[in-house]
Specification:
By secondary structure, the protein is an alpha+beta fold. It has seven helices and eight strands, in the order βαβαβαααααβββββ. The strands form four sheets. A two-stranded parallel ribbon has the order 1-4. Strands 2-3 form a two-stranded antiparallel ribbon. A two-stranded antiparallel ribbon has the order 5-6.
Length: 372
């Protein structure tokens, strides 16, 4: 197809069918700010080259498979490399010729894209960067940037005839990237997750539950558990994602996520992990708030979270006659577009029982009883 007929992607294509991903306030916005900042992975496209392939199955005589040479070439910024991603799609191959196009389609935004990583570990130490821009990383980052209403989007994306596995985040009902994920002997967690999202796009909720439960069992932590695991553990999974978010070294501001889940495991902050976590935190809502994080504010006298468990609402119930008025948090003090909204409140408590009260404005309150 002629290059001029290709469609450059600026916004999700399938939004009419999209399972909604909302904005997590303030964790999602702080991650986006860090990702696009000087220590993040949002970089100007400079001297983009395509010489070697990272995946052996996509090797060609012109672009052989050689990870070692690719990693070396990508370690000398500002020069940037690219190659075919896990789906075989090449960034900026607007004509789908198998080569990057020297002349990009006209655009009204700068040539910037997300790279794999900038060599930052959990302590903010800068090592060897992988100044390499993937199509798939930038595709899923674009979904997150649209979700968080940014005025800019990654360069180099186009509507490829080969679909990215990440189109499931845009609500596609026709493309299941891994239909046999559960039958695969290895059962890769990412493939199971993407298959579950495809099922959700088609409202096949019983299969979603079965697939999600299989993913939880895959962790090996709940082999003896019974019943619907995803319903039992969805809030703890959400809490766990928050617990893995790193703080910017030397500050109390949350930044990005690294690849691994163990402390000091040597893994680095990267684009894909961060944008997927941003989407996960806001899934199923327009906005999500945390009780003691901006723009919410703690009520006077409410006991603060211990530093070791900032992600868990360890509420300690106390009588109104004690310090404070018995309330946990005020807010959010924000203006929203006029309309009708459904509001969901999740409370995770440890070893407590009693009554919680939800108050909205001066004329509405609702009591919730929690049994130990």
């Amino acid at each position: 197809m002629d290059r001029k007929q290709r469609v450059v992607l600026k916004a999700p294509i399938h939004t009419q069918n999209c399972n909604h991903y909302g904005q997590h306030i303030s964790r999602g916005f702080s991650a986006l700010k860090y990702l696009c900042g000087p220590q993040g992975t949002w970089r100007a496209v400079c001297n983009l080259s395509y010489t070697f392939n990272y995946y052996e199955k996509y090797a060609t005589p012109s672009h052989p498979f050689d990870r070692e040479k690719l990693l070396d070439a990508a370690s000398h910024p500002p020069n940037m490399t690219t190659c075919r991603d896990a789906d075989g799609i090449l960034l900026s191959d607007f004509s789908e010729s198998g080569e990057i196009d020297a002349e990009e389609p006209p655009s009204d935004y700068e040539r910037y894209a997300f790279i794999e990583h900038w060599g930052m570990n959990e302590y903010g130490k800068h090592g060897t960067p992988f100044n390499h821009a993937w199509f798939d990383d930038n595709f899923i980052a674009r979904v997150a940037m649209c979700t968080y209403s940014t005025a800019f989007h990654p360069w180099g994306l186009y509507e490829s005839s080969t679909l990215s596995r990440f189109v499931v985040f845009e609500g596609t009902k026709t493309h299941d990237p891994y239909p046999n994920a559960l039958e695969d002997p290895v059962q890769y967690p990412d493939q199971i997750s993407l298959h579950a999202l495809f099922l959700a796009n088609n409202n096949r909720w019983e299969e979603v539950i079965i697939t999600s439960d299989a993913l939880i069992k895959k962790s090996g932590l709940l082999n003896d558990a019974e019943g619907c695991l995803i319903y039992q553990h969805i809030q703890s999974l959400f809490s766990h994602i928050k617990s893995l978010q790193l703080k910017i070294p030397g500050s109390q501001t949350f930044g990005n996520w690294k690849t691994g889940v163990q402390h000091n495991d040597g893994t680095l902050v990267n684009t894909e992990t961060t944008v997927l976590a941003m989407l996960a935190l806001g899934a199923g809502s327009l906005w999500k708030f945390e009780p003691l994080e901006y723009p919410m504010s703690p009520c006077p006298g409410f006991p603060q979270f211990p530093d070791t468990l900032p992600h868990v609402l360890c509420a300690r119930l106390y009588e109104k006659d004690n310090v404070g008025d018995g309330l946990v948090s005020h807010g959010p003090f924000a203006r929203f577009p006029l309309g009708i909204y459904s509001t969901l409140f999740d409370v995770r408590v440890l070893n407590v029982s009693g009554t919680f009260c939800l108050r909205i404005g001066p004329n509405f309150s609702k009591n919730f009883k929690i049994l130990n």
